[in-house]
Amino acid sequence: MCGIVGYIGTSDAKEILLKGLEKLEYRGYDSAGIAVRNGEDVRVYKEKGRIAELRKVVDASFESSTGIGHTRWATHGVPNHDNSHPHQSETGRFTLVHNGVIENYEQLKKEYLSDVTFKSETDTEIIVQLVEYFSKQGLETEAAFVKVLELLHGSYALGLLDAQNPDVIYVAKNKSPLLVGLGEDFNVIASDAMAMLQVTDTYVELHDGEIVIVTKDDVEIKDIKGNVIERAPYKAEIDASDIEKGTYAHYMLKEIHEQPGVMRNIIQKYQDEAGNLLIDPAIVKAVRESDRIYIVACGTSYNAGLVGKEFLEKWAGVPTEVHVASEFVYNMPLLSQKPLFIYISQSGETADSRAVLVETNRLGHTSLTITNVPGSTLSREADHTLILHAGPEIAVASTKAYTAQIAVLSILAQVVAKDAGIETGVDLLPELAKVTAAITSIVDDAETMEQIAKDFLSTTRNAFFIGRGMDYYVGVEGSLKLKEISYIQAEGFAGGELKHGTIALIEEGTPVIALATQENVNLSIRGNVKEVVARGANPCIISMEGLEAEGDTYVVPHVHEMLAPLVSVVTTQLIAYYAALHRGCDVDKPRNLAKSVTVE
Ligand code: F6R
Fold this sequence. Notes:
By secondary structure, this protein is an alpha/beta fold. The protein folds into three domains: 2-238, 4-Layer Sandwich (Glutamine Phosphoribosylpyrophosphate, subunit 1, domain 1), CATH 3.60.20; 245-444, Rossmann fold (3-Layer(aba) Sandwich), CATH 3.40.50; 445-586, Glucose-6-phosphate isomerase like protein, domain 1 (Rossmann fold, 3-Layer(aba) Sandwich), CATH 3.40.50.10490. The strands form four sheets. It has an eight-stranded antiparallel sheet with strand order 3-2-4-1-10-9-11-15, covered by helices on one side. It has a seven-stranded antiparallel sheet with strand order 5-6-7-8-12-13-14, with helices on one face. Strands 17-16-18-19-20 form a five-stranded parallel sheet, sandwiched between helices.
């Protein structure tokens, strides 16, 4: 979703900003822009579409060592030149980039700015026009900025330039992510450290409600009352090679192939020196003290939660519910006496999940965030955090984070079970080692998955995934992956549920991908396959060694049934990847989607 960069220093700001925006492309966007300044001369360049288009309109000869940049994912107003950021005030004195959504912008416009001619349909423009409004009333820029922040309802990360104060970038944040990066003779701002790793690996977190005065030599963080806040910087532990595609055609393919390495990393990080599984005892205590776990997440992370619920109930013995964050926040179920909330989020920034966390914090409930991003908002605001150790996930379609989430949840459930003296009959470490080997054999066999994608999905309009138990959850995730990158309408169904209505959609040749890795439902799912075949479906059966039958399309290596999702999902990821590739889709940047969904 929208991304912000800013630079103030001595080098060529244009190139640093454009490179920074390119690093933020993965978040999803539909237009981009930069504003650069030479003294009081501020130039704004913006363009609908990719950064490559923006590059074409930037005047390379304009010298500047200060600027701000933005990638926009449209919320208020269509993606076009006028709605792209940066936005300027009526006189052009102030220039602003903004992530987030201002909920009361129409009201503020009516109240203060009825005489101003707006150039865009965005909620953002109101902010920059208001800064000018208050500065015309005699307030210094910083005071005008603070005054505006006090009026705003909603989420924002902001970078503001004032042509009359050329040595400052004014920064503020509320609910939207923003970091300040530190350098020698320069400082930067960025929605995410990856954007500015090109110039610095040293960052300072910003908290909601803070404003920051960034100059080339100094960064001053203040609360809204003007009190100065001291905060130690940290080193972003991201290897620059982690955020490059290397020899892979797409980030998604790279990340699918990284999954065996991610499994090994998780096994290592969650193990003590004696080779025992290890989870922070405070987290184990929190799980054991709870009488019910509420997993809250969105999209793929929600799908991982469905699998995690099985571990927490079947191994750790704690009743667990899984909820879609955007629903939960407006329609909270009757909670148990001692609930524990588990937030699963790759990015740790998803606004829908954060809205629930804010509410459960207000109610005083214990929370645990499982995320790939240390220091992310959901991590900071929860009582406890478990890190995924999957390395940066750049492709919009989440793959390695899903398997990492499931692996971490399996370890959590096993450690809790052991602590509670529950005998699960599972020796998880060797089982995860088997999973790692199984995933390796599947990614090594990517050509077969490419052939399956060609055979079943090259021309179809729609497809169904069916499964029972754990396989149902994988089917839901497999269908999400397929639809988001290939635009094939795909749905995941419980095998037994299709005949209660949806089977009406099965026509001659409709692909039905059936997952068959669970022994107790193997015969039933195969029965469901027969039902759809009798109605003309083209079945693609993905089974597991030991449960295979003649004619199965692909057989994954045998692993513990509870861990089968970690393995079978990889086949669906690769099939989705190749289906999208052969249909000419932009795999890493699917239409309409954003990586980090920071608006509700
Ligand atoms: C799908 C996908 C999304 C995310 C969802 C939650 O491939 O990536 O469905 O899973 O937007 O994002 P996080 O996990 O960052 O909270």
